[in-house]
Design goal:
about 160 residues; alpha+beta; Arc Repressor Mutant, subunit A; three-stranded antiparallel β-sheet; two-stranded parallel sheet; 5 helices; 5 strands; about 30% helix; about 15% strand
Length: about 160
């Protein structure tokens, strides 16, 4: 990483620690409860985390139950397949869950259930791209990059705020 092209900030909301890595054009990574090590810290795009493309304010609104979708510029890297899956994830309604199979069918690749699961797990900006809304076909939660406790917290909060 070249330090004049990437920036980082960290903050906490609702008991969750957020570490953000961005470029000048958008958010590339949002890490949940994975603080950046001191040696991995990058210069700040702004000394105020709230000015990182509005991510802090939008996450505050999300956790307050007043924001259902995000309009933060993203600068995520991924394969064309991953990007197709991530785009579909943004279409899952707030407070609803779908299965990996449902996502595979929606992207017109019904046989790609495992690949959808892998792309879901590789989502670099959880919550913003709501991968927490994807569950197993049997109704079990499956995994989550931030941990199952955060996935449960997010799903419970969304259902409560419907």
């Amino acid at each position: 990483m070249i330090s004049d092209e990437f920036f980082s900030t960290s903050f906490e909301i609702a008991g969750i620690s957020f570490s953000v890595i961005a470029t000048r054009t958008g958010i590339g990574f949002l890490l949940l409860n994975q603080p950046l090590k001191k040696e991995a810290m990058l210069p700040s795009l702004s000394p105020n985390a709230a000015e990182f493309f509005g991510i802090y304010d939008q996450l505050l609104e999300y956790f307050a139950g007043t924001r259902k979708t995000f309009d933060i510029p993203l600068d995520m890297e991924g394969t064309p397949f991953q990007k197709k899956v991530w785009k579909q994830l943004t279409r899952i309604p707030y407070g609803k869950t779908v299965s990996y199979k449902d996502v595979a069918v929606k992207i017109k690749q019904p046989e790609a259930v495992r690949a959808v699961g892998m792309a879901n797990g590789a989502n670099p900006v959880p919550i913003i791209v709501p991968c927490h809304r994807v569950i197993n076909a049997n109704g079990k939660l499956g995994g989550y990059s931030g941990g199952l406790d955060i996935k449960i917290q997010l799903l419970d909060m969304e259902k409560k705020n419907l």
